[in-house]
Amino acid sequence: MLIQLTDITKIYRVGIETIHALRGVSLSIDRNEMVAIMGSSGSGKSTLMNMLGCLDRPTAGTYRLKGREVSRMGAAELAQVRNEDIGFVFQSFELLPRQTALQNVELPLVYARGSGWRWGARRKRALAALERVGLANRVTHRPNQLSGGQKQRVAIARAILNRPAILMADEPTGNLDSATTLDILTLFRQLHSEGQTIVIVTHEDEVAAHCQRVVRLRDGQIMSDLPIAQDQAGRFCAEVEARMSERALRTADSKAPSAEAKAC
Ligand SMILES: Nc1ncnc2c1ncn2[C@@H]1O[C@H](COP(=O)(O)OP(=O)(O)OP(=O)(O)O)[C@@H](O)[C@H]1O
Ligand SMILES: [Mg+2]
């Protein structure tokens, strides 16, 4: 098993407030799965992603990545895992504005273990990654000279540069129009068909529909974890929930839940 989370909790303390962002999440992800993580705002998706990506440590529970217990890793080993085993893609692209597409893509090699990468080899690998995402003709462009979809392609090229075990994307299409969203999802699917393991956090059913499996979170817990073909029930409940909270906001009305909400 590539990823094995067991009973993960994450508690944030802000002033006197205690926030239970994850409440006992257990989740396994195998090599070459393509998984969507869904749930309403505040349900813990990004917190879970940060755990999976070793950007944050759980308050309790265990995380085994490629069979190794993450909590036992020292700072140097963790940094290496983050750099080499995990590729990140974010909604806001997170590119360095003054650097060209090529320089942005090269970055993980600059920080790679021992930094033994020579300039020429680095450049060659970064160029191949840009070519892989269809941007061979934009290598000297800076982020402000690229479209949103192209910026996300640069970020994906950077994320796959070290051939990571897992590619993680947090709302990767949140800033893109629907045609560009489809382009980016097609690229993710191609990478998946070549063996890449992919975890995508998304609000959108259209995005999740491109994945094989959907994990739905609610209040820091896994509400359902189903193959996409069986996820209709989860989608129905999420829609009912969204409609109810919309209605509650509009009318500030706390009437008894409807029959369909009770079914969830
Ligand atoms: N660094 C932090 N410090 C304190 N509380 C936090 C922190 N990060 C997240 N939280 C809280 O933890 C809960 C889960 O947040 P998280 O960012 O994981 O939600 P999310 O599902 O990604 O939401 P969204 O869809 O809006 O991005 C929220 O209640 C949030 O306010
Ligand atoms: Mg989030």
Describe the fold and architecture.
The chain has helices spanning 45-52, 75-84, 101-110, 119-132, 148-160, 178-193, 205-208, 232-251, 259-263, and strands spanning 3-14, 17-29, 34-38, 60-65, 68-69, 86-90, 166-170, 197-201, 213-218, 221-227. The chain has 264 residues and is of the alpha/beta class. The strands form 2 sheets. Strands 6-7-8-3-9-10 form a 6-stranded mixed sheet, sandwiched between helices. The protein has a 4-stranded antiparallel sheet with strand order 2-1-4-5, with helices on one face. β4 and β5 (68-69) form a beta hairpin. α3 crosses α4, α4 (119-132) crosses α5 (148-160) and α5 (148-160) runs parallel beside α6 (178-193). It is globular. It binds adenosine-5'-triphosphate and magnesium ion. Adenosine-5'-triphosphate (ATP) binds at residues 12, 14, 19, 21, 39, 41-47.
List the helices and strands and how they pair.
Elements: E1 3-14, E2 17-29, E3 34-38, H1 45-52, E4 60-65, E5 68-69, H2 75-84, E6 86-90, H3 101-110, H4 119-132, H5 148-160, E7 166-170, H6 178-193, E8 197-201, H7 205-208, E9 213-218, E10 221-227, H8 232-251, H9 259-263
Parallel strand pairs: 3-8, 3-9, 6-7, 7-8
Antiparallel strand pairs: 1-2, 1-4, 4-5, 9-10
The structure holds adenosine-5'-triphosphate and magnesium ion.
Residues 12, 14, 19, 21, 39, 41-47 line the site of adenosine-5'-triphosphate (ATP).
